[in-house]
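target protein:
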Amino acid sequence: MSTYPGPDTAWFTGLGLGIFIHWGHAATRGWELSWQMVGGVVGQYPPRDPVPCEEYFANAASFDPVRFDAADWAAQIAATGARYVVFTAKHHDGFALWDTALSDYSSVRTAPCRRDILAELLPALRAAGLRIGLYFSIVDWYSPLYPRYTDDTVCKPYVVGTYPVSPATWGAYRTYMLGQLTELLTAYGPVDIVWLDGGFEHTEAEWDFRGIREHIRSLAPNCLVNDRCTGYGDFSTPEQSLPEVAPAGPWEQCLTMNESWSHVPADTAWKSPRDLVEALVETVIRGGNLLLDIGPDGDGTFPPPVVERLGALGAWVRSNGTALTGLSPGLRPGQCRLPTARQPGADGERVYVYLTLDPGPSLRVRGLPVRRVTGVSLVADAQPLPYTAHPYVTDIQSGTPDPEGDVVVQLPHPLPALVPVVAIDLAAR
């Protein structure tokens, strides 16, 4: 992580669940946001059918989200138990979803939409108690200063390092890019996170990430910036998979519900609600947040598979959310074959066991201080569970005052849906 003196990140660590929203005019055609224009990235799965650049840009004239209701979005998101939202103010394609004075390519200046999406959405999210993150791509494939992408200058499918370059306009482009960041950070109320992306298209020296970070800091001193402001980020953002070793410092895992970031109806590879709950659990118990992505439809509504998954996730969090907060590292390897976490308390601690797999009629947890077990229950309904405690013979024979042993918990069957959580309460030593 960066050694740059950033703001306090304590509020970010332990948020648990966040919602990522990828939206733009591409949703009206079911295109992957920005990447449809270049046919995806070589090596990326699934590939995308490339769309001519000018056809993609002209599609903005079809954007008319007549069913977009900011309050409804906020209510659906808040009902999941999410604590923050990151919204695509502008993706790589350059289409701005706010009233930018620096470009004609925006939801405000493009008919028939003529709406400042940020001006509607951000107050609704704040009213629902959600922290605000704005995704902002530092590249802009529409801007003539970047320069603008054309079918003659861009490799399709996209290969990193083959983008067009225009050194003569680079300084003017950076001024334009920083100007748009200024608009976002001064015209729409407090912003908690600036989520930058797109740094792969120029060198670190060309971008001057320190200059970008200091610009943000000058406008919003308490705002966090992600690690894609290379060398100057406040938190890490592994994408689409859980890292084998948790990143040092604050972090979040960015995860799609299917294989697309935005609304692509042809993509039916939906992760199940159980998959999503497991991803949430496995991320949170390792100290990260899960930033779960959704792609609204072009009319401004959440597609039915998204609504279904948000509802299931919310129901699980309402029943089991206490097992996602105030956690410390779980049991030692070998004590339990399922994910675990500890939750310190004033009078002892709780050990949580997350049943991502069905262990059968009983659950065995090894190496616990068995004389300090005061009860075992299911978190969802506080239902007490019968258990037996078996101290190790060696500890008994040696007269150990706080012997360890196995706790065997009898489980109800069938188990509750999704991921049940068992809580083992331990008295203080």
